[in-house]
Amino acid sequence: MSKVFLTGASGFIAKHILRELIEKGYSVRASVRSDQRKQELQGLFPTATIEFSMLDLNKDDGWHEALQGCDVLIHTASPFPLSEPKDPEELIRPAVDGTLRALRAAQAAGIKRVILTSSCAAIYKQADKPKMQPSTEANWTTPTDPSVGAYEASKTLAEKAAWDFVAQHPDMALTTINPGAVFGPPMDARYGSSLELVEQLMSGKIPMAPPMDMVAVDVRDVARMHVEAIELEATKGERFAASSGAYRIFELGSMLKNWDATLKTPSREAPSWLLKIIGLVSKDVKMVADNIGRTLAVSGDKAEKTFGFKFIPVKDALIASAEAVKSAK
């Protein structure tokens, strides 16, 4: 059985990938940023034999040594904030440089198989595509478009850098998995940005829902795709949207409200004119306003056909997230 190197192993998605790898019998070497994160994973998987490497996306130290002896690279590590940074390069440089750092180390170690966690954010904002036309894996976000935020640009540029790299090293086979907003059950109390949105919808921190849709998926499906892609020949050289469907944010709040009527979910959508005015002084609100009149929908049909499964319904993923958020209080 192959030995898999998993970067960013303490992340929300990566923990589920780690569990899938262990259950399927793979040997795993996992990168983390601190001894605390290592201890968290050892607590989650007390009977598993996991090798650990302490690595930093922004530093070369240790990368080449860490990947020696591995057969597969699964690169999940990338920054994911809830708000726009003052300088987009704060996200773009670690995402792009970190991806290339991992790929160079993999190539030097003789690794031929690479699975990269990208995002639907690298797909759904192609500037020359009709704004209300759903996207597919054939589409690419235009990083220089004014509506594209730093995170969206970072994921697009990092994925493009990966495809450019393997084009120069054709002995390497790349697959990218492009999730939408990732919901579902976290494996511990540290669940990151995706579930923070659920907490905000539940608690009244979003009094009026932004008038936009978002593509969503269950973390268990995302993890499954990463691991099954290792051996699935049809996935080589392909990108796959991990998408169970696109829903208005207000609809997501309504799903939660139907599950628990006591939640303080948004009672209506914010008017477009109000967001445009607030967007003049708030970078975060401006990013929302720039999405008005655009669908972020991305089809998950290619993934379902190639992997041979049906995505978990968004409602089930959302409620699994909500149960975790509620129990953590």
CATH homologous superfamily, by name?
NAD(P)-binding Rossmann-like Domain
Query: Which regions have little confidence, pLDDT < 50, spanning 5+ residues?
Result: none
Largest sheet descriptor: 7 strands, parallel
CATH architecture: 3-Layer(aba) Sandwich
Domain NAD-dependent epimerase/dehydratase: 4-237
Protein name: NAD-dependent epimerase/dehydratase family protein
Organism: Saccharospirillum mangrovi
Keywords: Oxidoreductase
Overview of this protein structure:
Helix 2 links the parallel strand 2 and strand 3 (50-54). Helix content is 41%, strand content 15%. It is globular and about 55 Å long. By secondary structure, the protein is of the alpha/beta class. The chain has one domain: NAD(P)-binding Rossmann-like Domain (Rossmann fold, 3-Layer(aba) Sandwich). The protein is built from twelve helices and ten strands. The strands form two sheets. The protein has a seven-stranded parallel β-sheet, sandwiched between helices. Strands 7-8-10 form a three-stranded mixed β-sheet. It holds the Pfam family Epimerase. InterPro entries: Epimerase_deHydtase, NAD(P)-bd_dom_sf, NAD(P)_dehydrat-like. Residues 4-237 form the NAD-dependent epimerase/dehydratase domain. This is NAD-dependent epimerase/dehydratase family protein. Belongs to the NAD(P)-dependent epimerase/dehydratase family. Dihydroflavonol-4-reductase subfamily.
Structure summary:
This is NAD-dependent epimerase/dehydratase family protein. The chain has 329 residues and is α/β, with parallel strands linked by helices. It has 12 helices and 10 strands.
